[in-house]
Queue: 4 jobs
Job 1
Amino acid sequence: MDFRPLIPGDRQVIESYGGGGFRVSGTRYAGSLIVFPERTLAWSVTAMAELDVATLRPVVDRAVADGAVGGGAVEILLVGCGLQNSFIDPELRAALKADGIALDGMDTGAACRTYNVLLGEGRNVAAALIAI
């Protein structure tokens, strides 16, 4: 039995992580990333201490532009915190919630796997992933 989610071919699927980067839909990226269903962006964050509204601006801008408040493009943001899960500031969580984005932090590996599952379910998800 095949348990892999059925994901349309035009979506950004996270295939692997480690070695300081990621492989997304056949392309190798060095460093941290923000992955949306249809595109992948380089992300300057290398540690959780750098995580704030400014560093997540590409996600917030996209959500607001696409009308996420009330059902738009990004409803769930997974934060890959690195090798292990890390505390996410409640004020940051509240700021994103005000823009219609639920924020969930976990280790980077779990974030990659969860992103793919939610993408396969057709959810409006993005992942901000710190490279390991």
Note: Residues 60 and 99 are 7 Å apart (CA to CA).
Job 2
Amino acid sequence: METSHLNTEQIIIGLSWDPLDKPQIADRIFTLFGHNKETFDLDLSCYVYDGNNAFLDYVSGMPGEMIDKSGSIRHSGDDRDGAGPDDDEQIKIDFTGLPEDIANIVVVVEVASAHAFKDIFTPAARIVDVKASKLFFNETLKDENNGDTSACVLGRLERVSGSGDWTLHTIKNYLNHEHVEDWSEFLTQFLP
């Protein structure tokens, strides 16, 4: 596990991928039956915990879930096809506005369409300092070891005790999201 000291007030977690330009007839048939294979759809979310590893909040691109209770964690909204340049989905975190009881934030990427990472064109994630544009994390989410999986626990942001600083612990744990019944409970294994 790689660790980076963030030493910044705001970060953006960005997720990007390229669209499926020419769906096949089979893709359209699967989509008609409720299994979207016609477009690539990835989702970015984060789970918020206190110092005792109790689940506090959840932020995703879905309506009603785009802002945490403090207003300091904001999602850009759900992108369902990956079209367009740069990040397709983003979560912006303002560390200065987070309540003191927030100790850890775990970031997750899921393939929401009926695909695995091996099917997606150029899936990538980055974490960047908003003001300095310094990259803390910038990696592809596709390689020969994770191709058949549909979710990635990207990393954990941890508040440095007694300061306003935060640390990024890169996790990159791949799995199939169909096997996770309760993400908020499942992710506690990655907490200190």
Note: The chain has two helices and eleven strands.
Job 3
Amino acid sequence: MKHIPNILSSLRIVMVGVFAWLFLSARIPAHYFWALGVFVLAFLTDVLDGFLARTFNWITPVGKLLDPLADKLMAITALVVILIGKAGQSLFWIYLALVILVGVKEILMLIGGMIMLRQRKVAYSDWYGKTATGLFAIGIALTLLSFVFDTIEPWNIAMLSASIGLSYVALAHYARTQLFVPREEEPSAEEEKLFEKFDRLAK
């Protein structure tokens, strides 16, 4: 039962490809609703697996890595396909700047995550990151709707900008409270197996 959240995270990774295909194959405005539906379903699945993991203590080291991986894949994919859809429009350069900011943040998080794995630590999310993720999901949903309703722009850009700004605040918070703080307890047996796999991949 404790692997149910991990199964849901794996399904979200599959949804990334479905979402991208639906968006890029859209031929009329109404088709974007299908992509939006998959995106919303993925977000709700993210909320559900987090709820189950916390409520029933189905938290595993693999889940701590798989869950954010699924989130990041969906977020980056959504931004890239949106950027493709906005090509040639007047606000394209604003979307490009937002994608670059997200890309830089994700690279920094990847570096930090690898450092933490070498320190035998696994990062965990808190309300800074959860709030930024929620606002970002709303911004992406509004941006998808902007392909159907022109009046949504630039409100979607404001929401995306706010979420990305908060994500940098969350990044600094994680660095202060997790990256630069020594681990007090010994890793569990399951965590140690995960660290050993990382060591082998690193070699």
Note: The chain has one domain: 4-202.
Job 4
Amino acid sequence: MIVLDTSVISALSEIGRLDLLSEILNRLGTNAIIPHTVEKEIIFQEAIALLKKNGGWIEVEKVKDYKKYLLNLHDGESGVIALAKTHGWIAALDDLDARKIARKENVKITGTLGIVKMGYERCPIKDKQELQLIINELKNVGFFMTPDIQERILDTEKLKIKFS
């Protein structure tokens, strides 16, 4: 299970690629979940429609124990870390402070770019040209990435997966 923060949902919504998230998670054999604290932050109608209670594929779970992270983080990030820690799931966070706290809490993390990278490795993103296009789209909507991170994503190779 991957616990999504608002930033991941918003970034992919802004570039019209939320469907890619579903394809990637499907290839990974996992599902998406958000804490109720993230649900309150979602502003994109297409993302709201994807919540399981609206017939979609993203589950929502009430999270406890998230308030201890509120000194340094927003509600959504706090909820993501608390939910991922409680269940041993992966937290999808982009905020540097949230990632630092997640690491201190021994929570496995990824982010929007990590998910995009997995999408390239596992084929929903068909080639380097499409990967570069997605990176450019993210940058065009203000998504921050350092040149070395961009280079690392673009240096990713396809996984050789045999389907039975």
Note: DSSP finds nine helices and five strands in the chain.
